[in-house]
Design brief:
With about 375 residues, the chain is α/β, with parallel strands linked by helices. The protein starts with a strand and ends with a strand. About 45% of the residues lie in helices and about 10% in strands. Helix 17 (about 320-330) links the parallel strand 8 and strand 9. Strands 1, 2, 5, 6, 7, 8, 9 and 10 form an eight-stranded mixed sheet that branches. A two-stranded antiparallel ribbon has the order 3-4.
Length: about 375
């Protein structure tokens, strides 16, 4: 049985994701298996996931996935490079291939770009561009062009991740086949597109009580309807309370806070009354808004650089079907997989429980009670 991995957020899962499942099985055979490694309750944009991880994992299984594992928060809240490296490290012992959407699904160009970014000459070229005051994304594109590379793969979100997946496979020397699939449509579109819906559009419609049902697989409607939504705005005062009580040492220890950025965040957190005001005051052309969002969320969650870089001692199983059960029989011990809600009795579990409790403060229409993590259960369907 061929096993393909997908690194995902499903925030929320829509018809485009189900299309990926279908195309993947057309490529690898109807009996091939799909393992989804999904971000937990916080996503790489530096925001709480709109829907709880259990809801999103159930939707994935009902839509065609076979096994859903939780991507640890340290990887989920890292830069694109850390996100990809952490995910590839987890999937490599389980899967033979890695499937992903890309705006330019040219596998040769993806590999060539990844090799150039890993070449000895790239870091000096990048430092040269950064010294001119460019933002990291702009400096990276310019450095790649200086080395004769094609920078178009560093301009769109899915392409950027595609290159980072290739870099991770090369750096870790793992035998993962890369399977890019064309990601049609606008990834950030706020307009309806029945063929290629965007998660941005769906999140907006779900928050506003609008028309989102036609853009998700019909199998998922029951688990989405009535599920509590979670937004940064709903938990704004909780985040502000954390920022206003942090010490200088805690700000200095934040991830993504190099070059004095943490000082700017500390200063504005003590001046501004709203989160948007803080982010607007701190942003500049050198730092992306996503980086600032992740930095602020790490402050709220109490995550330091070590938390992002330290590999977790285990990976949580969120949902599976019969085919996924067979994968677990073969790989559970080697891949360090444990059941959702299982008591592991280690410091990392304490961190997981804290993140779950803090996620509940983003719930609409009112905060969710703490202490729910031990009561969570895996979703299973034959």
């Amino acid at each position: 049985m061929h096993i393909s991995g997908i690194i995902c957020e499903y925030n929320p899962l829509h018809l485009g994701h189900q299309k990926q499942f279908r195309l993947l099985r057309e490529t690898k055979g109807a009996e091939s298996a799909i393992v989804c490694l999904m971000s937990g309750n916080f996503v790489q944009r530096g925001k709480p996931a709109l829907l709880d991880k259990q809801v999103r994992a159930k939707a994935a299984i009902l839509s065609g996935a076979d096994l859903v594992l939780e991507l640890p928060a340290g990887a989920a809240l890292s830069s694109a490079e850390g996100f990809a490296a952490g995910a590839v490290h987890i999937l490599a012992p389980i899967c033979q291939s890695l499937c992903f959407g890309a705006e330019h699904p040219d596998i040769k160009s993806i590999w060539e770009t990844a090799r150039t970014l890993l070449s000895p000459g790239f870091s000096p070229a990048l430092r040269q561009q950064l010294s001119q005051g460019l933002s990291f994304p702009a400096a990276r594109q310019a450095a790649l062009e200086l080395l004769g590379g094609d920078s178009r793969l560093l301009t769109s979100p899915n392409d950027i991740l595609a290159v980072e997946y290739a870099k991770a496979v090369l750096s870790q020397n793992v035998p993962l086949e890369l399977l890019p699939i064309s990601r049609d449509g606008d990834y950030h579109s706020a307009e309806p597109d029945a063929e290629n819906p965007s998660a941005t559009f769906l999140r907006r419609e779900m928050r506003a009580g609008g028309n989102w049902q036609a853009f998700v697989p019909p199998e998922t409607l029951e688990c989405y309807q009535g599920a509590p939504l979670h937004t940064l705005d709903a938990g704004e005062r909780a985040v502000l309370a954390r920022l206003r009580t942090m010490t200088e040492a805690e700000f200095a220890a934040l991830p993504f806070g190099s070059e004095g950025l943490w000082r700017k965040l500390m200063r504005e957190a003590r001046r501004q009354p709203r989160l948007e005001g803080i982010l607007e005051a701190v942003k500049s052309k050198r730092y992306t808004r996503t980086r600032l969002n992740r930095m602020l969320l790490c402050a709220y969650l109490g995550l330091g650089q070590e938390d992002l870089e330290t590999p977790p001692p285990y990976i949580r199983i969120l949902a599976f079907n019969n085919r996924g059960r067979e994968i677990l029989r073969q790989h559970k011990d080697a891949a360090r997989l444990v059941n959702l809600g299982e008591d592991v009795r280690c410091p990392y579990q304490d961190l997981e429980n804290r993140l779950d409790d803090l996620y509940g403060l983003f719930a609409l229409p009112q905060p969710e009670p703490a202490g729910q993590a031990p009561r969570r259960r895996i979703f299973y369907t034959p």
